[in-house]
Amino acid sequence: xxPFLDGxxxxxxxxxxxxxxxxxxxxxxxxxxxLYFKTHRQRYYELLGQVRTDGDWEAWLEFFAEAVVLTxxxxxxxxxxxHELAAAxxxxxxxxxxxxxxTIQIHKAFLAHPVATAKSLGARTGISPATVNKSLxxxxxLGIVRETxxxxxxxxxxxxxxxxxxxxxxxxxxx
Length: 175
What we know:
This protein is mainly alpha-helical. Helices cover 65% and strands 5% of the residues. Strand 2 and strand 3 form a beta hairpin.
């Protein structure tokens, strides 16, 4: 019996990544192989069928290794681009004078959580609400973050550059 309507593939792909972490091949579960398999769904099912009917593990392992190589390369590229974005934005913040220190702390918090509220940023950084709000105004002016709700209270801010890089290649609705 399958725990998911679409079979056990999802669970198997999760276990593969966790096994790679457990074996110290990956330090963190950064490989998202499901997107590769979804993109190459026809070949994925074809090769699984060949393993079942003909015992053709070699073709399956070659396909899997190709997925790991491509996904790893994409993860490295994404990491590099996120690092470059953070460095370029941090450079803009160094021009803010006295406000730079607290705004850089808020920027760092956004790197860890690219969607946040003023309250959550204050809790993460220990910066006062007034200073968090001043930093958010500066980050908005510089085009680094934007407010997404249009409300006066309970506003939500997003670090669009980070989200854009992280969502590339995913089929997501427009934000």
